[in-house]
Amino acid sequence: MGVRLNITMDQAVYQQLKKQVRPKKMSAFITEAVKARLRPDRRMLDAAYQAARRERWRRQVAQDWSPTESEGWPG
């Protein structure tokens, strides 16, 4: 459920927003813009990392690149 806000923004920014975003899509646009600027919490990051670990293609890429790791190379 959404929360109604009363915010203040620069007039020039508002005019640009009105030109580029349809009125019925403005709330979703602003929500996504704010989400993009907020730091994700630890649970969200942990879930994303766990999901990435389950992706086969990532394991394959890591395996393909493992010979390029410098550990164990003569220094």
Salient structural properties:
75 residues, mainly alpha, 4 helices, 59% helix, elongated
Structure description:
There is one protein chain. It contains 4 helices and no strands. It has 75 residues and is mainly alpha-helical. The protein has a domain at 40-65. The longest helix is centred in the middle third of the chain and has 12 residues, at 26-37. It starts with 10 loop residues before the first helix and ends in a 10-residue tail after the last helix.
The major β-sheet equals: none
**By helix and strand content, what is the structural category?**
mainly alpha
Number of helices: 4
How far apart are the first and last residues' alpha carbons, in Å? 59 Å
Q: Strand-and-helix sequence, N→C?
A: HHHH
Task: Tell me the number of strands.
Answer: 0
Principal-axes shape call? elongated
Give average pLDDT, whole number: 89
Unreliable parts: none
State Rg: 22 Å
Proportion in β-strands? under 5%
- Percent helix: 55-70%
Offer a quick outline of the entry.
With 75 residues, this protein is mainly alpha-helical. Helix content is 59%, strand content 0%.
Show the helix and strand layout.
Elements: H1 11-20, H2 26-37, H3 42-53, H4 56-65
